[in-house]
Specification:
Blueprint: E1 3-13, H1 16-25, E2 29-33, E3 38-42, E4 48-53, E5 62-68, H2 71-76, E6 81-88, E7 93-99, E8 105-111
Parallel strand pairs: 1-4, 5-8
Antiparallel strand pairs: 1-5, 2-3, 3-4, 6-7, 7-8
């Protein structure tokens, strides 16, 4: 197996404050907020929700991020189209983007110190 469930949900919003309050009303707790209208919430041990504010001119998007357990095997599998190879991020993870057979993009995330 090369992934192990959902790591996170990334949401874009036009109003960070309202979106955060909505998820808090659903039982999510704010883990941190940034100084640029974004932040991370979590409900129990489930996937975290990261919300980022975007300009009114952009349609808010949503992305599911899968948790990686073997990124090297995933990248080497001929059934998986790698769109963006595995890279270190500035927020302490390694990430890659893959495309499914229907054209959807998926983000795969692993801890920065994980080496498969």
């Amino acid at each position: 197996m090369t992934t192990n469930g959902i790591e996170a949900v990334f949401l874009e919003t036009h109003n960070w404050g309202r979106a955060a309050k909505f998820f808090q009303a659903l039982g999510y707790e704010l883990e941190f907020a940034t100084d640029h209208n974004s932040g991370q919430l979590r409900n129990g041990d489930g996937p975290y929700v990261f919300i980022a504010e975007v300009p009114e001119t952009k349609v808010p998007g949503m992305q599911l991020v899968l948790k990686a357990t073997d990124t090297d095997a995933l990248a080497a599998d001929s059934a998986v189209e790698v769109v963006t190879p595995l890279v270190e991020t500035h927020y302490g993870t390694r990430e890659m983007t893959v495309r499914d057979p229907d054209g959807r993009l998926w983000s795969i995330q692993a801890p920065a110190d994980q080496r498969s």
